[in-house]
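Note to self: keep these together.
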Amino acid sequence: MEENKRKIWSEDEINYLVKNYSNIFNSELCEILNRTELSIYVKANKLGLHKSNSHKSKCISKRNKMVGRDLTKELLTSLAKNYKSKSEFQKKDPSAYSTSRRMGILDEICSHMISKSFSIPEIILKDIISKLYVTENIIHNDRNILKPYELDIYLPGHNLGFEYNGKLWHQKNKNDKIKLKLSNEKNINLLVIIEKSRDYESDIKTQLIENINMLGVDITESDIKNIVIHNPYQLVYDLNDLEKISKKYKSFKEFYKKEYHVYLKISKLGLIDKFTKHMCCRRKKRELSEIIDKVKNYEYLSDLIKKDKGTYLYIKKHKLNHLVKDLKRLR
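Structure:
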């Protein structure tokens, strides 16, 4: 009975926890309230209590001292160079990431990293501009020229800027009008490329040609048309890293389940066969003769859909509707 009574939280204990939980280590609260860490954690969770940011910083500093790391700006800069994105940095070295953010140097030491929110058409535009102006100083994603707004591409030698406006992001976006106004005030010629189709390369080249007078006297229509754009995803993803991850798996099923994000990347790069050929249980490319033979087993389309949905979806995906045109439909 005494043990059960001791487990009940008194009003004073609850008030103390509410007042102090955000800034005191749980180990200290255990001694003060004579409770286990689990009990403290469960009660705080039920009350919706959280640690303060300053306390989290103390925890990080304490942990860094325990592992013998003095996270100076120089060391943090060196550590950040090991990662290609902020998400990777945060996942693999959370203490260094949090310390960098707390010190206000996160953006600075991560400037070499690729943002996860990259835009493929913007990458294509940047690639084209870099090939048109090989000898020029090109500034990317700058927030000082039209401060505080970001300018996708700027050529100071030509006083020329470029923006790519996607349909979704820039639809009725007031910032676009402000950027144009600021550009005019600074006498910057701003060429805005507007998304008109999913054929980004053709879309961008066409609009550059339509505004060729803004680009400079040395650039011709054929210069733009003849630019070769390689797979833009290769400019974002490190192929060596993707291949190393793929080689860790012997089973395609396990690889697909545990590394779905990698699967999507190599799929976009057209490297599925190359990077997964060593795996077992890999999906084999279906032969057309195999599909035709499967369809022949059915008289009604509804039966094919019901009993062999995989084949039906394959037909729809690859636009092979002519293979099922003779199957009967239920009325």
